[in-house]
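Tokens for chain A. Residues wanted.
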């Protein structure tokens, strides 16, 4: 007999209505309803002395109910194969600090967790699941946002999206005006994002079915730019006459037409009102939307500041006696309000234009995409839109045309310019069996290829996505700006209010006028825009510049970390070296009447048709030397030793020293040569003909053309270089000496590479790992910055932070130099943004007046505010001139 863990009824195992696995045990149920309750929430049951499970007392159940401050998240799970998997995940989640309840449903593949947000977060929950070897499938989307104007807007949009149930992370970029959201599709989506943003006064740019979102976004930006330009011109056209009336008497116009003062004020008001409420409506719209949700932003500052000047002036126009104190007649500031609005719009126009230039790299990449492809169907050539190309289609590419999608050459020969993807200037030869990349340019011959990747799966699409994600991400250096942006606007309103009070009660006459002008100056000069743009504009230009140089940077954090690197670990095979053996030496035994060409002929003929890498290298060398190969007879392979064959009735042996010893071949005369070649990291193979050793052929995995230059450049930057390899110490040392590597980890098993990286990190080093193979992926992930060679395995690129598309190791040096340049640029921008606000806000408040009787005119404040944003963006654009030559 066993006990039903839900209702407590004793039942026989044979009569059970169902069973469930939990905690490594099998539990039996009297009815399906009991099993269903158990599967939904085993956390509600406690073990008893017998090892079985029973329902908890009702009081304890109530204690386990989620508290009001807790949040619920339903995590979808992958990788579970049995109920014990569910139990394992549930137990680990339950142990986390801040988790109140955790229930894993094996059938639904879902974990329902109630947690306290102040004590833990979704990232920690997901990390726990992944550390156990299971997955949490999530989607990522980048959406264009309408209505953002400053860093405060960024903070509000980001917090609003991040607060949604099912959203794992949200990052908002003011420069691109986009939000990148990682979320659980079952719980959140575009509809929820749109509602959340509309609730706080923003919106998402959406494309209709079949409409290109990039083109839609471009049109939206152009429409906004034209609208801004129209309002600017109208505002300027109306503001100029206002100044005419302001200086009516000083210019002598009053001698031509006498206009009473109050009438002059009234005319100014009539002209300025459209500027205030039509030209400047966007400021009111943004401020009202923010106020509706009890928040503030930059629009609040502008709207309150200009409205204060406008309302004061309207009052002075109709009720001048209110402000006439001790001989001071009332003045109006319609010109100030109008000029502030026009200058801020001018700044935004410059900013919009400059921001458009920061995304030129993406535009260039998108512009590379061909529009059509020439497919061959049933023997007929047909041009079709690129969107209609399918995997398996046979495509013809003629000289001068772009390769439409990724694929494998099936017929023909040509050279292809891949510089727009890899940054390599030399064309790459292509023939049957070679891969071709979409958007590259065919130079000479025609060829046919089979499409293997289309649409979003092509390399170009992945590059565009990666660059967009990187541009939307934020480095740790941006966190300070985000924190300040969150309190910036309320703080400025507070400073402006205090300024008004001090000037009103303690300032000279007319106190109200001084108080008002200084209040407006503080409100207008404060610039959260510069703070919001300081980091993302530099990141955009930096990652875009990387893409132009064949360097794909996965995120802003990697870009920031790269400038701190002081140790770089290189995998040997395929990274420092070409990854394929080549013949380096052919040496004849002194005193023998045989040439190097004849030795190569015997060896290559014996290896003819061989699939062994060393044999293929010898045959390839013979072909390059135009050596005539002969057909071998009586071929015999001795695994791990060598081969034996008959060439022109002569017995030819090719192999190592042990093989020669087994065949009684005397190699004493060339043993010294063997040791010399081995010391250089090469693999020597003896060649014997008819029982006599005639020579040695050495094979080695040679260094890539630019490896030495790259290592030398890194040494110049003061970075320690390390090589990691499975080769023996002697071979590894020889290669390290040839390339100029500082330190060698030899005889390292593939699975131990990550441990070696960890050892370096324990020496307080910021470590980068450069690799290309599947076995490099753990080490790439362990390193502070993982750099993958783009010609290597996909999994290595997935695990990396930076990918060098062309495989040129000089890209490692360039990526570090680019990181240094970008971080330097960000620091300059942040310094300017902080210094601008720190210095000019007190000046606007009148801090210089007691000493020099200097006050900042609100119009100059508006000009300074507009230029601060333009300055930050213009400084970021200097990165477009980045060059680094080794």
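Reply:
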């Amino acid at each position: 007999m066993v006990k039903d863990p839900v209702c407590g009824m004793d039942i026989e195992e044979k009569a059970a209505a169902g069973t469930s696995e939990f905690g490594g045990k099998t539990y039996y149920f009297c009815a399906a309803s009991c099993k269903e309750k158990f599967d939904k929430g085993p956390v509600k049951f406690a073990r008893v002395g017998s090892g079985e499970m029973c329902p908890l007392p009702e009081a304890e159940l109530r204690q386990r109910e989620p508290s009001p401050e807790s949040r619920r998240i339903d995590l979808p799970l992958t990788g579970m194969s049995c109920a014990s998997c569910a139990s394992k995940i549930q137990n680990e989640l339950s142990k986390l600090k801040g988790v109140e309840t955790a229930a894993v449903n094996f059938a639904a593949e879902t974990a329902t967790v109630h947690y306290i947000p102040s004590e833990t977060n979704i990232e920690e929950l997901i990390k726990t699941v992944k550390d156990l070897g299971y997955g949490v499938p999530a989607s990522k989307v980048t959406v264009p946002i309408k209505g953002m104007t400053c860093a405060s807007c960024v903070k509000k949009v980001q917090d609003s999206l991040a607060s949604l149930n099912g959203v794992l992370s949200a990052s908002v970029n003011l420069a691109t005006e986009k939000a990148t959201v990682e979320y659980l599709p079952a719980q959140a989506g575009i509809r929820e994002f749109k509602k959340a943003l509309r609730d706080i006064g923003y919106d998402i740019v959406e494309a209709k079915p079949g409409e290109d979102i990039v083109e839609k976004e471009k049109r939206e930006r152009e429409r906004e730019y034209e609208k801004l330009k129209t309002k600017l011109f109208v505002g300027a056209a109306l503001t100029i006459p206002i100044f005419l009336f302001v200086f009516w008497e000083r210019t002598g116009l009053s001698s031509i037409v006498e206009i009473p003062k109050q009438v002059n004020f009234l005319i100014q008001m009539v002209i300025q009102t459209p500027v205030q409420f039509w030209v400047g409506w966007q400021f009111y719209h943004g401020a009202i939307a923010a106020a509706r949700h009890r928040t503030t932003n930059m629009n609040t500052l502008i709207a309150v500041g200009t409205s204060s000047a406008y309302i004061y002036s309207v009052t002075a126009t109709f009720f001048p006696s209110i402000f006439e104190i001790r001989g001071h007649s009332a003045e109006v500031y319609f010109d100030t309000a109008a000029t502030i609005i026009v200058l801020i719009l001018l700044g935004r126009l410059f900013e919009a234009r400059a921001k458009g230039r920061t995304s030129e790299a993406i535009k260039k990449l998108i512009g590379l995409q061909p529009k059509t492809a020439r497919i061959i169907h049933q023997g007929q050539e047909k041009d079709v839109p690129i969107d209609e190309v399918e995997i398996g289609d046979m495509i013809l590419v003629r000289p001068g045309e772009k390769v439409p999608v990724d694929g494998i050459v099936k017929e023909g020969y040509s050279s292809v310019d891949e510089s727009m993807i890899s940054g390599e200037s030399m064309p790459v030869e292509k023939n049957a069996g070679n891969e071709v990349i979409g958007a590259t340019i065919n130079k000479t011959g025609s060829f046919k290829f089979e499409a293997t990747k289309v649409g979003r799966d092509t390399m170009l699409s992945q590059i565009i996505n990666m660059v967009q994600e990187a541009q939307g991400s934020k480095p740790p250096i941006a966190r300070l700006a985000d924190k300040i942006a969150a309190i910036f606007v309320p703080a400025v309103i507070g400073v402006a209010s205090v300024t008004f009070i001090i000037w009103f009660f303690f300032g000279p006459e007319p106190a109200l006028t001084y108080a008002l002008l200084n209040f407006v100056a503080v409100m207008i000069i404060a610039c959260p825009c510069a703070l919001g743009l300081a980091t993302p504009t530099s990141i955009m230009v930096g990652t875009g510049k990387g893409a132009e140089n064949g360097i794909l940077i996965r995120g802003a954090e990697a870009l920031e970390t790269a400038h701190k690197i002081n140790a770089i670990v290189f995998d040997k095979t395929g990274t420092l070296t070409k990854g394929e053996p080549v013949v380096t030496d052919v040496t004849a035994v002194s005193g023998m009447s045989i040439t190097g060409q004849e030795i190569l002929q015997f060896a290559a003929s014996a290896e003819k048709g061989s699939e062994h890498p060393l044999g293929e290298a010898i045959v390839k060398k013979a072909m390059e030397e135009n050596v005539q190969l002969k057909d071998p007879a009586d071929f015999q392979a001795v695994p791990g030793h060598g081969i034996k064959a008959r060439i022109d009735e002569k017995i030819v042996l090719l192999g190592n020293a042990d093989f020669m010893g087994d065949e009684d071949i005397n190699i004493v005369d060339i043993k010294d040569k063997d040791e010399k070649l081995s010391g250089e990291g090469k693999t020597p193979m003896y060649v014997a003909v008819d029982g006599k050793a005639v020579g040695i052929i050495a094979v080695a995995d040679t260094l890539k053309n630019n490896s030495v230059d790259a290592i030398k450049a890194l040494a110049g930057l003061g970075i320690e270089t390390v090589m990691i390899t499975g080769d023996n110490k002697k071979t590894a040392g020889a290669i390290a000496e040839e390339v100029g590597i500082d330190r060698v980890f030899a005889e390292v098993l593939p699975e131990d590479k990550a441990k070696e990286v960890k050892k370096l990190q324990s020496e307080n080093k910021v470590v980068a790992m450069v690799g290309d193979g599947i076995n490099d992926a753990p080490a790439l992930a362990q390193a502070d910055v993982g750099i993958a060679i783009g010609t290597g395995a996909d999994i290595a690129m997935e695990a990396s932070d930076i990918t060098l598309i062309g495989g040129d190791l000089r890209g490692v040096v360039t990526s570090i130099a680019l990181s240094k340049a970008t971080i330097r640029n960000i620091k300059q921008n942040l310094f300017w943004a902080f210094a601008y606000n720190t210095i000019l806000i007190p000046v606007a408040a009148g801090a210089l007046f007691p000493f020099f009787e200097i006050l900042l005119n609100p119009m100059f404040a508006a000009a300074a505010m507009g230029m601060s944003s333009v300055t930050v963006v213009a400084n970021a654009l200097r990165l477009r001139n980045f060059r680094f030559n080794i």
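The chain has a mean pLDDT of 79. The longest helix spans residues 810-845.
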